[in-house]
Each structure stands twice: as structure tokens, then as C-alpha cells.
Amino acid sequence: MRALVLDSTRCTAIVSDVPISDLATGEILVRVYAIALNPVDALYTFDPLASASPDSNPPRILGSDFAGVVERCGHSDRSNAHLKVGDRIAGFLQGASSVNHRPGAFAEYVAVPSDLVWRIPDSMTFEEAASVSLCGLTAAQALFGSNRLGLTAPWIKETDFRRSEGQIQPLRAARTLFVYGASTSVVYAAQLAHHAKEEIKLIGAASSRHFEWLQKQPYAYDLLTDYRSDWQAKISQITNVEGLDLAYDCISEGHNVESVSKLMKPDGKMAVVRSIQGGAWAQTAELPVEPSYGAVWEGLGEEVQYKGMNLPANPDARAFAVNFYQWLSESGDRLKPNVVRMMPGGLEKVVEDGFQLLGSGLMTDRKQDRNESWMQPVSAEKLVYRLV
């Protein structure tokens, strides 16, 4: 099969012929129809985490998000009993985003655990579905993770009351949730907040040109502020200087993390999409509220090594991912996909075009001087390539 493989000596990737992976127990083989790009895919191509060449055995296949059709089911451990050949599914892998060797998604076929994919509804295209898995799980982990913002996930079977140690506890009053970077590819945060089993007042910061659609369903922000304005002052005014209950920084670069932290209540909770160890943001003073970070890769249930961190395999994080994708499978149109920008050229153009648009570092450092329609700056959309 053809796949996009890492060449770490030249800090690039090339399309190469590689063997199709053997299936382990509980895995399925997927014919990939579409792939979606994430900044991390470009980052660890231009700044590789481990040595690899196209001749490595096995090669390091790049890429995270994919959508396709079940081609074959491996030996069953009952986890794949719900799937059959021909089913349309989507998921994500950890291609070259860890020191550990694991194949990625940018290939004609991928082998993937059958309980870490979700069924694509008839109302959704392969291209749209390819954009959901990684960013959707990222947002779900941040909002519903017990060590993150701690909202009650929609797949938790509860009534309108919370039961704890036999005591009935009424739901708390509406809490404020501030999303910095409301129009980024983590747009699922707002949608998932509306699915949470409590009342949320949703506040967002984004470019004003996105306000119109962010105010509509399924995002339905209660209040929006332009990130180019004095948004800190506006948030303070909105909260009557009391501070925010919850915040999710979907940019997590530069001084943004500090700025958001200063707007929190003393007992508030804040989540970020990038760790301080990754160098995207710096701490110049003690933060009023310490942000929580979690690597989306933990959802795959494997050990993760990157940026000097060693995250052991986390069964709870994997179980969370399984529950999230099962919830999506039950009604995949619960989440509206990102706006998709179709990129021409297939695998051969991912590095030349897609990765050039995403860049190798911060969002604020992205520069583009090409004139093609598909090479305009990225804003509130996902770059997607069709492979079939």
C-alpha cells in the first residue's frame, strides 16, 4: 500500500510503498477514504521526535485522523462484534507523534482497535467525518475529564439529580464556561458543553467575522468577544469581576494562558490544549489557577513518550475514549463537523501544501505567500485530502 512515511534526516515525509499491517486480536483493517490534517502532524514531521527513514523496518507512517470503510475484521475478542465489512467508520491514530513506534493514518489502509472507532452517519461525508475524531476527543477529555473541567459527560446514565453515596443532590446553578479560540478546530467544545448534564453559560473569544455562525446552533454561544479587542476587560465585566467558573484555552500560546488564568475564580478550573513542556506558552508569574493538560493520545491506551514526558498506558483514558466513540456511534450527527477545505492531490501533496499551511510551530507564526485558492490562510476549517 502507499503511505506517507517520515524521513527524519531531512525533516520531511515522502510517499512510499509499505506492507499492510497484520491485524491483532480485536483490530479491524480499514480502507482509508479521507484523511484530515492536524497541526501536530506537521509539527513532528518538521521537528521529528525519533529517527526514521523511508527504509526503516517498519517505516514510521504519519498522520492522525482518518475515515473509511471496514475491509476486514481480525480475530474477535468481542470488541469488534458490532462491526462488519463495509461499515463506514472514522477514528484516529498516533503516527510519528511519539518516540514509541506506532503506525499512523496517512495510508491507504490502517489497522485500528475496533472499539476506538465510531460509525459515520448517513448524513456525513467521509471528508467531514475525518475531521472529528482527534479534535472531538480532545474537547471531550478537557470538558468531561475528572481531572480537567469535570463536567458530567452525556453518556453518563443519570437522572436530573446527582446521586452520591446514597444522597440526592440537586444540580448546581449555571456555571460560566469561557472558550478562548472558539472558532478553532476544537469547535466541538461548545457543542459538547450543550450536551453536558448541567446548565452552562457559554462565553467565547474569536475573530468577530465568525460571530454570526458561533451564535447559531449547535454552538449557541451566549456571549462572544473579539480576541483582538480588550477581551480580558470584557470578560471581567461579564462576570461582574467575580471570575470564571471554567475556561478552556484552545490556543494555549504566548501569554494567553496567563491572561485566561487571571480571569478565573479562585476555585475555578482551567484546561489547555498544549503543555508548558512543549514550549508554546511561557509562565512569567505564578498563575492564579493552574491549568490542566492531557494528551489526547492517552485515549489510545498506549504508553506515550514525547517532549521529555513519559505517560504510562492509561486504562481509564482508553475507557473514556471508548465511551465517547460509542456515544458518537449511537448518533454520529450529535456533533457538527468542522468546515472542511478540500485539498487537491492526495498523499503526494500533504507535505508540499497541507503541512506548509499548518506550519511547524505556533499559529501566530504561520505565513503563506502562495496564490492558489486552496493555499489561503486557514481559519475555522480543517484541511482534508481524499484518498479514494
Structure description:
With 388 residues, the chain is of the alpha/beta class. It has 2 domains: 2-132 and 337-386, Quinone Oxidoreductase, Chain A, domain 1; 136-297, 3-Layer(aba) Sandwich (Rossmann fold), CATH 3.40.50. The chain contains 9 helices and 18 strands. The strands form 5 sheets. Strands 3, 4, 5, 6, 7, 17 and 18 form a 7-stranded mixed sheet that branches. Strands 12-11-10-13-14 form a 5-stranded parallel sheet, with helices on both faces. Strands 1-2 form a two-stranded antiparallel ribbon. A hairpin with a 2-residue loop joins strand 8 (161-164) and strand 9. The longest helix is centred in the last third of the chain and has 16 residues, at 315-330. It starts with a strand and ends with a strand. Residues 4-362 form the Enoyl reductase (ER) domain. InterPro entries: ADH-like_N (IPR013154), ER (IPR020843), GroES-like_sf (IPR011032), NAD(P)-bd_dom_sf (IPR036291), Trans-enoyl_RdTase-like (IPR047122). It comes from Lithohypha guttulata. Keywords: Oxidoreductase.
